[in-house]
Every structure is written in structure tokens, then in C-alpha cells.
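Repro case for the chain-ordering regression, as requested:
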Amino acid sequence: MAPPMIDPALFDQLKAKIDEDTIVRKELDQILDNLNTHVSYTQGVLSRIHSTPRSKYATLLSQVEDGIKKETESIGKLSAFASQYPYYKYNYKWTRMVQDAISTVVLCAWLGGLSTESKPGELGRLLTLEQVGEVFNVPVNLKDQDAFHITIEEYLLGLISVVDELSRLAVNAVTLGDAAMAVRISGFIRDLHAGFQVLNLKNDILRKRMDSVKYAVKKVEDVVYDLSLRNLIPQEAQGQGQ
Amino acid sequence: MSGTKRDWSGNAKRRDGPRGPQKPVVKNAYTPMFEALRDELDAHHDRRERLVKASRDVTALSKKIIFSLQRVRKIERELPSNIQAEVDSRLAEIAKLLAAMAPEIQGINRYRYARSLMCLEELAEALTFSHYLRTQTLLGPDELASLVDDLVRRGAAPEDAVMADAGDTAGADTSAPPAPPAPTESPTESPTVALTLDDYIYGVFDLTGEMMRFATTSTALTGTLAGGASDGSADEAGDEPPRTILHDMHELGTFFEMLPVPPGNRVQWEKKLAVTRQSVRKVERLGYDRIVRGSERPKGWVPDLDAEDQAPGEEE
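-- result from build under test --
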């Protein structure tokens, strides 16, 4: 008797694998829904920065930090669950959300939030990839271990969102009478832009999003130009931005 | 502080292309951080480029194997020796490419570069087709994995060993249906090329297309539907009539219809399934034609395959 065309066990074997994949994705979706809620909330709170004078940042930032704590919890759950499976198999499902979460953390820290014992919060502090990992309590840039982590690309894309947000803040800060802030932002964005130019980018998402950085630089420089033209830049800020 | 970029053969590359250090780089507090990130990203991009290149070669070789196999006229234990030789020499080339790729796609990198490794689907198609032509059965994913393991091992072996082994790369190991290939000596911890479930499933989807082509050509040229006893010399025909390729196509078609749609890539799945349905119908038509007008068909007449392929859906 010739063997059958298809081994009878094969169907069940494949079906089991497909079913497992389906279940994993469903659970991931739930975790990500949860994360999404917290990221959106935190982004929402952060957007109040555009209408808040610098003297009241502290209260606002403590609210943001609460949001970030929630984000951290969700990311912890995601990390525990996702680490059971090949990282890059499902990474596409959460990478956008993690980028947004990263940008809330980086922006909050830049505005002076997220102080730790070793590093007091101060305006203009840029968190590194490693420091973002510490905030979220997850590893970063794993290469030899197939587990959840924050990738370089996610960090850089998060930075780009922060740049966009800051270029908006520069305008609004001036409206609130805080010209020094615009100067400060101008200097920071210019430095970041120079940093991005160090990268050798392929024609990928990073390159496309990177394009917005130069427009942000220009936008803020225009603001500073307007201010300096009218002698509106306070003395003490003059050294920082230029 | 920057790492050394290397080309495909491992020689250090001078980094003085049009881009890069020639640009006056503005140094500031963040420059070192970005330089470190750049080196990591460069390593990633270089690795992906190497894989894409090798993958393209493996795909081309796999397609050539399939073309060779399409010159087979019936299902039997051994492929005709000239075809077997063609297949073997291509497999030996594939083996070397895979062995070179293997270290780069271990662990976390397997899925990271999954989209650059479409060649594995093509290889799965070639190997399952070759297996079908010799055994009239579907190669399972585990057997496929051990075949690929074996290829990688051969590719990693020193040059003379490859030459000595090349003769039976496919012949000896792939003809014994599910028998796991006996590794002569397994080098400790040698990296392998892991196939994903998708590589296998989509490879088998494409297999149905190849089977349809094979069924069409062989029926046209031999006047019988390829199957277990199609060569007349089959030893163990048994009492019931031997299975034909039409039966096998039906089984494969049903198999895919019954499987749940894998999440994540529904569109691709639906497309492949539609093509498979079409292939099954084409072979059904062959079976019908052979019964109804069998002897009327002039020997050597081959249906115009290209025309059929280019007008999908004509039968709907």
C-alpha cells in the first residue's frame, strides 16, 4: 500500500500552529488596547504644555508622570507576554505605540520632569535610549537575546515626534511671553538635527520621518529670528540658543 | 570609535563613499550618542543587504531546479540522471549560500529579516516538488527542515567534502520519505536556517501550481495522468487502482480549504488559495479529457500554458 499523499497528522500539526498564532495575536491586541489608552491619555495631558506657562510646569509634569507610570505598567505586561514569542514576529503590532510612549517620556524629561535621585529634573535634559529603557524598566537594543526590548529605530522615531512637539511649543511659549523657551528649543532642535545627520539612513521610515526635523528647525529658527529682530530675546537666554 | 564595515567576503571596507565623513559634521553634546547609534544601524543595514543578495541567488537557483524538474515526465523512484545531476549541482550552490547566511539569521534575527528571506519559500517549493516527483507524497515541515539543515551542513563543510557529497545531495537523502537524514558527524552548535511555518505553507501553495504544470505536460506527452503506476513498471500496484495526480491535487486543495486562515496575512492567503483552486480545476479538466477523449488527443500536443496562466479567473 502506497503511503497517502498527505500524512494524516500534518493537518492537525499545522492547524494547531495557526490556532496558537491566532490566540497570541488576540491576547496581544488586548494588552495593546490597554497600552494605547494610557499613551493617548499621557499625550493628551502633555499637549496642555502649549497653554501652560513655565511656572506651572511642575504640576502638569507630575500628572504626566502618573500617565507614564500607567504606560510603564502596560509595557511591563507587554514585555512579559511578548518575550515568549519571536520578537520581530509581532513587533509591527506595537512598534508605533511604543514610539509614542517613548516620545511622552523623552518630552516629559526634557521639560524637567522624571527626576531621579541621581539626576534632578531640569529643562533641556535629553534621555538616552538606555535611560528610556530604565524608565519603562525594559531592556533596550537586544541583539543576542530574543525578548522584548526597545529598538534603536523606535527611540529615534520617538525623538522625531518630540522635535515636532517642541517646534510647536516654541511658538506657543512665545505667545505666553516666554521668549527664552523658544531660544532654548531652537538650540536643542538644531543640535538634534546635527545628530540625525550623522546617521546613514536608507530610504525607509526613519528617513521619511527625519525629513520633518529640518522643517522643525526652520520653523523655530524663524521664531527666534522674529524675536531677535524686535529685540524680544531676554539677555540671559541669548547665550543658550545661538 | 566606529566599527569596521565589511563587504560580502569579509574584507574591511573603506568608508569614504559619497556620503559619510566627508560632510563637515557639527559636533555637539549629542554627536557621540548618534555616532554609536549610526554604527548599530549600519551593521543592521549591511546585514540585511547581504541577506537580500544571497536570498535573490537562492531564489533564482530554486527556480532553476523547478524548471529542471518540470522536464520530468512521470512519477518514479529516481529522477532521470541528467535532471538529478542538474538539481544536485544547484542544490550544492544553494547549500553554500545558505551556510553563509545561517550565522546572520540566528535567534532574534530570524524574524527580523523574514521579509528579506522569501527565498526559503521558493526553496521549500523546489524541495517539496522534487520529493513529490519521487515519492508521490507531500513532504512534511519537519522533513523539510531536516533537509534544509542538511544542506546548510554541507554548505558549511570544507570544499572537497562538498564535492564528494554533492552527488547524493538530493538523491540519497530526499528519496527516503520521512527517514531523518543521518548526520555523519554533527559539528558542534553549527547554525542552521530555520524555516517558518509561512515558508512551508506558502511553499506548498506554490507546489500545487507546479503539480498542475507537471500534470498538464506529462498528460499531454504520455497520454496518461501521472500517478502511482503510470510507468507500468510499478511493483506494488495493489488491488485498487493506483492514485493519480488528480487525486493528490484534490487532497491538497481540500487540505488548504480546511485549514483556518492564518492571522496577519489574510490577503496573501486568499490569493494563494484562489490560485490553488484554479490549479485543481485545471487538473480536473485533464482527468475528464483523458477519460472522454483520451485516444483522440494527438500525441505531443501541449496546451498553451502561458495563455492560461495570464488569464486567471477565465474559468469562473
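Ordering looks correct now. DSSP finds eleven helices and no strands in chain B.
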